[in-house]
Design brief:
Elements lengths: L3 H16 L2 H4 L1 H13 L4 E5 L5 H8 L3 E6 L2 H10 L5 E3 L12 E7 L10 H11 E13 L3 E7 L2 E8 L3 H11 L1 E10 L8 E9 L3
Parallel strand pairs: 1-2, 1-4, 2-3, 4-5
Antiparallel strand pairs: 5-9, 6-7, 8-9
Helix pairs in contact: 1-5
């Protein structure tokens, strides 16, 4: 099973309480966001799979014209309550209600960790579609090569599959979609983490 909406609807408030300031404590996340914010051009930026908006507000405070999209209504409800000055919408990354080339930048920051490998080409194609030529994508994901079941987290029972991927495989998929690699950052696991490593890749759409 992979009950994404049901799991995160139940856990949304506690998820936010636990993780809302995580990026301030983790140099890896700060470094990836710093790089993305420095290279993305002017124009709208989509935090795609925004969860409760913790990264959306960070980018807004950096001066980016950012909005958030997430599959789970409970996550969006928390985001709207916490950050009422920002725009948040419920939508799937496989079918975004955005025009071709609408975005200057996009994030898929761990928003595809519950997406099996066979579905990644479709979602990468959708992200490519909504980015304008020259636009940048920041994709954060877990590094490895398998799947584990997540039955409990954030104080709640969950029903989620968590996928990890080899960095070269992800870069190959992004390159085949039409993106060009700009930067890749990886880190090893913190003590107690179940996943071997984390990765953040920044790619650019350089063709129509």
């Amino acid at each position: 099973m992979n009950d994404i909406q049901g799991s995160y609807n139940a856990a949304a408030a506690d998820y936010h309480a636990i993780l809302k300031d995580y990026h301030h404590r983790d140099p890896f996340e700060r470094g990836a966001l710093d790089y993305f914010a420095a290279v993305v051009g002017p124009g709208p930026v989509g935090d795609l799979g925004c969860g409760t908006g913790r990264i959306t507000i960070d980018l807004a405070q950096r001066g980016l014209d950012v909005f958030g999209v997430d599959l789970t209504p409970g996550m969006i409800e928390v985001a709207r309550a916490e950050y009422p000055d920002l725009r948040f919408e419920v939508a799937s990354l496989f079918d975004l209600e955005l025009k071709d080339g609408e975005l200057a930048g996009a994030l898929a920051w761990y928003s595809l960790v519950h997406t099996p490998g066979e579905d990644l080409p479709a979602v990468f194609a959708e992200l490519f579609r909504v980015l304008r030529p020259g636009g940048h994508l920041l994709h954060g994901f877990k590094v490895g090569g398998g799947v584990r079941h997540l039955a409990q987290a954030y104080g709640h029972e969950l029903d989620l599959e968590v996928y990890s991927y080899a960095v070269p495989d992800v870069l190959d998929l992004l390159t085949n979609t039409g993106f060009t690699e700009v930067a890749t950052l990886t880190r090893t696991a913190f003590p107690g983490e179940k996943d071997a490593a984390q990765a953040a890749v920044i790619v650019q759409k350089v063709s129509l």
